Amino acid sequence: MKTTSTPEIAEIADKARAWACYDCGKCTATCPIARVGGALSPRRQVLAANLGHREDIITNNALFACLTCGLCSSRCPAGVVYCELVLNLRQLAFHDGVEPECPHGGALQSMMRMMAKGKTKQDRLSWLTKDLKVQHKKGDVFYWTGCTMYYDAFFPDFNITTLDATRAAIRVLNRLGVTPVVSPDERCCGHDLLWNGDRANFELLARHNVKLVESSGAKTLVISCAECLRTWNIDYQPFFETSPPKIMHITEFMQENLDNLKFKANKEHTVTYQDPCRLGRHLGIFDPPRAILEALPDITLAEMPRSGKNSICCAGGTWSNCDRYAKHIQVDRLREAKSTGAEFLVTSCPKCQIHFACAMKDPNLHEEIEIPMRDIATLVADALAD
Amino acid sequence: MTPTKTKRKAKSGSTKWNPNIVVFACNWCSYAGADTAGVSRIQHEPHFRMIRVMCSGRIQPGFVLKAFERGADGVLVSGCHIGDCHYIFGNERALEQFEKTKNMVRLLGLEEGRLRLEWISAAEGARFAEVINDFTAQVRKLGPSPLNTGNGER
Hints:
The structure holds two protein chains of two kinds. Chain A is of the alpha/beta class. Chain A has helices spanning 9-15, 26-30, 32-35, 42-51, 54-59, 62-65, 71-75, 82-95, 107-117, 148-154, 163-175, 191-196, 199-216, 226-235, 250-256, 278-282, 287-295, 324-339, 350-360, 366-369, 376-383; strands at residues 141-144, 220-223, 246-249, 269-273, 299-301, 344-347, 373-375. Chain A has three domains: 9-95, no CATH class; 103-256, Uracil-DNA Glycosylase, subunit E, CATH 3.40.470; 260-383, Rossmann fold (3-Layer(aba) Sandwich), CATH 3.40.50. In chain A, 47% of the residues lie in helices and 7% in strands. Chain A is globular. Chain B is 36% helix and 15% strand. Chain B is built from four helices and four strands, in the order E-H-E-H-E-H-E-H. In chain B, strands 2-1-3-4 form a four-stranded parallel sheet, with helices on both faces. Mean pLDDT of chain B is 90; it is low at 4-10. The chains are: A alpha/beta, B alpha/beta. The interface between A and B is medium-sized, with 23 and 21 residues.
């Protein structure tokens, strides 16, 4: 098991292959923040890390301006793992008392830290409706709900219900004959705390959650939220004491069982798909969502010019990057989505929906960028034949 | 002046537990109400820390949640009466924010009695004392917050 000790900068640079950088600058040229005028230069950060300029890096705003969307890494010819570098440098910064300026007054970070303390009994399942079949303790399939119930309570004015996707996922699982475990003792996965640099609280959450899933005896863990999935797939691995269950995104699970899903005819729809950064570039899950959209009757996918590996992120991943550059990126992205002529913007991460919904609130741009959003699971659940 | 300047120590031999309460008060009404209570020498429970903000509309969920995260046993949000806001509609915003806060607190599993919203005007010194006494008694009944680990640390 990993410890909470903070590695030194040389070690961090070494692990992220910063030494391989040959200063070509592709990272800074592709960085979505740099492209809209933000002061972030991945290249400079890599150089500073190589030189061991701890003070510079940590006090530099650029460290927390990074979206950790992974676009630069995907273009880097030297294979520098920039996200890994940022992740570890932020831990170093946190250790030195530097934290990001949390949007929403840090409410969401407080929520996560309260869950990390874990002394309360959360009201985690009151959103379950009667038609959803779940169990609470043991079972073969564990469905990880993520924190959508909190998001809906916190963003009542956004006109989106991220819980719809959670309910839809369970509906699809039920249709496949699966009664998933949905646990009242689930806690936040800690993704955002980890990416804010707060490793100690992340570890508390990780230990609890891993133990919870292990004790359920589940062989498969199905997750809807792209960020939770990344955390489980990558960051939780050292915490498993037994061999980890098969961790799947809901779209992967649906793709595997597509033959058992019967769909009814739909009203014709053109949709476009937003690849969440965690699902796409971090985990390489590009095809399953597309395969599902393909399989749905009467749904046509109109890809955005920048899609798949080149997709642009919603610019708000870790509740730490909200500024005018993020807004710029969101507005650009929504314009791009509208330009495809799609009726819906489909995604598979609650945060993409939240951040785009926020951008759409701009009264000056209203019609230019407004496009209804759907989570992919709700499309599938709505298309299920009776 | 500190509105908390009343009898601090419990009577010797008393083992009554005293809660840590955070009070958010707006500059124009509630904070002045506390001041009125003070200059009128109205005795009230002293187990709270007051945080003054310019308007109750400033008190967003993050403030309250942070207080709970750091182990506050109760949080009182206070401002001008509806219609009396120094900034016309700030307290209406406060109400919206408070609804959000309440929902988050409920989901997180803290008792609803640990959080309260009260409108207190600058003239209502006696009412301020009354609210504080009542809320302190209520929180005392609930006991220490489960998140109160004693050191205010995360």
